[in-house]
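Here is one chain, start to finish.
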Amino acid sequence: MQRPRSRLASDPRFSRMVSEFADAMITRTEAFAEALRRSDMEQLSSLSHKLKGSAGGFGFDSISSAAARLEQATLVAEANISSVSEHVEDLIQLCHKARGD
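Its structure:
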C-alpha cells in the first residue's frame, strides 16, 4: 500500500493545513476502531461520510475513496461486520500512512 499524498501538499498555501489534517486523522482512526469494537454501523457510517468529504477537500483522494467504500459497506441492509471490519482496517492503515507512521 502506497503512502497517500495530498494533491495539495506541494502548494505552500495549503501544506501546513494538509499536515495538520493528516495528524488529526489519527484521532479519527481511534473513533473508527471504537465504533467497530461496538459494531456500531450507524456511527461507522457517519464517521466515514464525514471523512470522505474532509479527506477529499484536503486532497487525500485515496482516503476519501476508502471512506466512501466503508460508508457503502455500512449501508447494506445485511451489513456484515467482517466485511466492514476489513474496510475499517484499510482506512486506518491509509490514515496512518498519510502521516508517515
